[in-house]
Specification:
mainly alpha; elongated; olfaction; olfactory receptor activity
């Protein structure tokens, strides 16, 4: 995904690549390979969640561990709700992208308009690339740093990427290391689903930002008497309404769970700092990851709202 983002890669292509890699849209080419790939992503995603739930059902002796378990599970449920929503609304996703492409073709016919779309695409590629690198490398970074910690402590505090149920013993070092690899591997299903959703939000936001600036430029140069401007304005309103209808389902679920996740991880971090004076990388990584969706949603919504009704487009 990261290597495929070049200077010539359009935001639409980036979004499609991300959605295909997440198992949300069928991959092009061999139907059998496409099905097997999607099934493997879905299996990782659901295996991760079932393992989390089974571990919670076992009960935690320590309150701090219990809070961490439920915080991780709440994060998983949020990602799962988005994944299921996107997977069940594939036609709506394709409709939104087709509409964006049609508007792009209509509104980028002159050099000045292409400048706005070019700026939006260049900035979008940079933001998506940076955020994608951070999210995609999370399991690898966790594995490397936690392994270094294990070696330093002589494997006294065995810890997986999340508190999950494992049906075998991890007493032996080799069994523990294989389990760490396994837990990191199945977490990839969650990672690619998480990544696909924020890329979709980013692409829509950056494209809408460019279109609204083009429309503003038209209003300033051609005046309000141009009928074409009103037609384009109407298209953008309809597109925003379609997008709002599409995301409204899982956003209700987000509102209920997202505020709880930073609180749970924050409490764990504060207790760890109080006890040892240090903070582990995975604790820091988790709270950053759970904050990102909220920040992205707010920034994307605010960007469109400011451009659409805050004075730039009137």
């Amino acid at each position: 995904m990261v290597n495929s983002i070049s200077e010539d890669t359009s935001l639409y292509s980036i979004a499609h690549i991300s959605l295909r890699l997440s198992g949300l849209i069928r991959m092009e080419g061999n139907e059998t390979l496409s099905f097997l790939y999607m099934a493997s992503i879905h299996l990782k995603l659901f295996t991760f969640g079932i393992s989390l739930l089974l571990e919670i059902c076992k009960g935690a002796k320590d309150f701090e561990i219990l809070i961490e378990q439920w915080s991780v599970f709440a994060t998983y449920l949020t990602i799962l709700s988005r994944f299921i929503h996107f997977f069940s609304k594939q036609q709506q996703i394709l409709h939104i992208f087709n509409t964006l492409e049609a508007i792009d073709e209509e509104m980028s016919k002159d050099e000045e308009s292409r400048y706005f779309t070019k700026v939006a695409e260049n900035f979008g590629r940079k933001i998506i690339k940076i955020t994608t690198i951070f999210i995609s490398s999370s399991p690898i970074l966790w594995f490397i740093l936690s392994t270094i910690y294990d070696i330093q402590t002589n494997f006294k505090n065995k810890r997986l990427i999340a508190q999950m149920w494992i049906p075998w013993s991890m007493e032996q070092t080799w069994a523990y290391m294989l389990t760490k690899i396994f837990s990191s591997f199945i977490s990839l299903g969650v990672i690619v689903a998480y990544r696909a959703v924020f890329v979709f939000d980013f692409v829509f936001t950056f494209q809408m930002s460019a279109y609204l600036k083009i429309l503003q430029n038209y209003l300033e140069t051609k005046g309000v008497k141009d009928v074409k401007i009103f037609q384009q304005h109407k298209l953008l309103i309809e597109l925003i309404n379609d997008y709002n209808k599409f995301i409204s389902g899982f956003k209700f679920f987000d509102v209920a769970l997202v505020p709880l996740m930073p609180c749970g991880f924050g409490l764990t971090i504060l207790k760890t700092l109080k006890r040892s004076g240090t903070i582990s990388f995975d604790s820091f990584q988790r709270i950053i990851i759970v904050i990102i969706p909220t920040v992205i949603t707010c920034l994307c919504g605010q960007e469109i709202n400011i451009l659409f009704s805050g004075g730039e487009v009137t």
